[in-house]
């Protein structure tokens, strides 16, 4: 629950170049010293607010909530510092990073502890596990899913050593195989009445040296992601799905939250 903010006189205890929000059209201005604080004009009085823990001020009606945004999205903190990283000073207390399970701050996007293809989105301390699709890996520096060659520290799977984007037989199976995407294998199934040929490494019309003609149509047991990829390759039994570009994050809906400085 937010407590009513205290009123501050900008000339008292503040830098003389701090802009007065009550003299601006937007009635909201960033703090001149701290990038995770801002001033808002309430009842003709300037009031000081903190951005939610882990976010910094971006501007009125900007960012992900309450005018605050992820600090890495722009140069919000150039020439400024974080109040949340300051030590206690006289008459003022600064909250440091507030961490919960999987979250370094209450708000943010963080890498997974054990997986290169997963990451966490944290909102008010609640972590939601997300998955990079299409053979992409989570890039800690870019805070987004990226091509494997741009991500340091994640080794390719041994199954895909020979061809990072090829097909690999699955034991003696006639209809299932591994599809490598960016060095990481995805389990796939040939379309009905086709079999996987270990020599051409593609789904073909049987018989082959290893597989006969199926007596009945094979059941479709796709996982949702695999089914989507198969539909994109419909009409070409050897089509390999590739993303059109390394895109952003597959996050959930953002909700608002935060508090004001008291």
From TrEMBL:
One of its GO terms (molecular function) is chitin binding. Signal peptide: none annotated. Residues 245-255 have a biased composition (Gly residues). GO terms for cellular component: external encapsulating structure; extracellular region. Residues 214-232 have a biased composition (Low complexity). Residues 19-79, 100-156, 157-213 form the Chitin-binding type-2 domain. Keywords: Chitin-binding, Disulfide bond, Glycoprotein, Repeat, Signal. InterPro entries: Chitin-bd_dom, Chitin-bd_dom_sf, Chitin_bind-dev_reg. Residues 1-22, 214-262 are annotated as: Disordered. Pfam families: CBM_14. This is AGAP002909-PA. It comes from Anopheles gambiae (African malaria mosquito). The lineage of its organism: Eukaryota, Metazoa, Ecdysozoa, Arthropoda, Hexapoda.
């Amino acid at each position: 629950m937010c407590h009513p903010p205290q009123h501050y006189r900008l000339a008292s205890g503040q830098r003389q170049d701090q802009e007065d929000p009550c003299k601006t059209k937007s009635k909201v201005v960033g703090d001149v010293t701290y990038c995770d604080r801002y001033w808002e004009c309430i009842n003709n009085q300037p009031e000081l607010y903190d951005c939610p823990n882990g976010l910094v001020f971006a501007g009125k009606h900007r960012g992900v909530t309450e005018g605050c945004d992820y600090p890495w999205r722009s140069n919000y903190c150039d020439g400024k510092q974080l109040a949340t990283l300051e030590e206690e000073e006289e008459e003022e207390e600064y909250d440091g990073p507030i961490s919960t399970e999987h979250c370094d701050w209450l708000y943010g996007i963080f890498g997974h502890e054990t997986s290169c293809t997963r990451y966490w989105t944290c909102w008010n301390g609640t972590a939601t596990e997300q998955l990079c699709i299409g053979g992409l890996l989570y890039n800690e520096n870019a805070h987004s899913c990226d091509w494997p060659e741009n991500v340091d520290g994640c080794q390719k799977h041994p199954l895909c050593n020979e061809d990072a984007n090829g097909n690999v037989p699955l034991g003696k199976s006639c209809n299932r195989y591994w599809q490598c995407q960016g060095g990481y294998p995805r389990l796939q199934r040939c379309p009905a009445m086709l079999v996987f040929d270990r020599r051409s490494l593609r789904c073909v019309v049987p018989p082959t040296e290893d597989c006969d003609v199926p007596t009945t149509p094979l059941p479709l047991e796709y996982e949702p992601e695999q089914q989507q990829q198969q539909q994109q390759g419909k009409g070409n039994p050897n089509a390999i799905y590739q993303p059109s570009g390394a895109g952003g994050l597959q996050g959930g809906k953002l909700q608002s939250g935060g508090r004001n400085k008291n």
